Amino acid sequence: MGTMKRMMLAIPILGVMALAFLLLALAPAASSAPIGTAAAGKAFWDAQWCSRCHGANAEGAYGPDLAGRGLSFQHVARAVHQPWGVMPAYTTQQVSDQTVADLVAYFNSLPAASEPGPWRTTVPAGAPLGQRLLIETAGCGQCHGDVLGNPRRSAGGEGADFAWFEELVYHHTQEFPTGRMGNFSKARLTEDTLLAIWNWMTQDVGLRVPVTAAVNAAAAADGNVNYTLTVQNTGKAGKGLAAGNLYFSMVVPAGSTVVGASTSRSTLVSASGSSSTLPAAAGYQGVQATADGSNVASWLAPVVGPQEKVTFTITVRGNGAAGGSQAFVRWLSPTRSASPGVDGEYIQTGLVRP
């Protein structure tokens, strides 16, 4: 009888001990969240462009409001890494536990918003389906603008197809593991929606060619000044799009005259597939007056292909030779500008002095 009584008493004691061990095991997990600082959270918020969807002060805009809601570490971590909306999922390499804690501290340091702020990018009047979807449904426009300028430029540099675009959207962190964008979910941003956006990018406005331009200046011993314009198509060799029907110009400094001009190419790429019809013969066109009264030295070229670099130089002489020059580059194919009344693409460089 005594033995049975002792066994019966041991059962609840063992149960209490098991519960105690369980609570001890759970205690570290409950307190494992780092301690965050609001200043660090705001710094991350600004650097990662979170405000472009959620408002400058987390008051909400395209994305929901976050300020002053008393959100917990677990709530924010879940929303960032496994979002239940259209927001892309971010990896722990992009948003660490410490960063989550900092964001929580920042959100909870802010007053609750009385109403959400305006969208950073709104849908233009009469926008076609693909453009509406990228702004309203996917939210791409909040970071990339209403015409997706940089994504279209990247796609043009790759000579991309839809498979490339799909991979970039759904598995973005494989290409950019520490980038500002996470991975979109096919369940919330479907392939049909993505295809409609791609068709708008390629058919309605067209992919862009990644052309860069820079001006350098150097004074010569004889008092002349050489201004050099270097233009390069940075697209992938054998894949990227070629820019066609190009017009290049450099400003002739006031009070100086052009005494020499030259052109050189680092490679030559076939113009196959690009329009090469120019309003005049390709090459140096001389100096022409513009509507604002300045003079520009200009060149025409049928094409600048991927990984091709073209260099234009003018040598000027006169009292104003060191006054500085800037350059303008325009190309008409294959892209179509999204700006009304403007054809093709256009680059303007800053003013450079020797």
Please give the share of residues in helix: 25-40%
Main sheet specs = 5 strands, antiparallel
Poorly predicted residue ranges: 1-30, 267-279
Query: Quick one: CATH superfamily of the largest domain?
Result: Mu homology domain, subdomain B
Output the helix-strand order.
HHHHHHHHHHHEEEEEEEEE
Strand content: 15-25%
User: Count the strands?
Assistant: 9
- Class of secondary structure makeup: alpha+beta
Compute the average pLDDT.
87
The third-level CATH topology of the largest domain is: Immunoglobulin-like
CATH architecture of the largest domain: Sandwich
Number of discrete domains: 3
Could you name the CATH class of the largest domain? Mainly Beta
Provide an overview of this structure.
With 354 residues, this protein is α+β, with helices and mostly antiparallel strands. The chain has helices at residues 2-30, 38-47, 51-54, 73-81, 97-109, 129-137, 140-144, 149-158, 162-170, 172-175, 191-205, and strands spanning 211-219, 225-233, 243-252, 257-265, 283-289, 295-304, 309-317, 327-333, 345-348. β1 (211-219) and β2 (225-233) form a beta hairpin. The relative contact order is 0.11. The model is unreliable at 1-30 and 267-279 (pLDDT under 50).
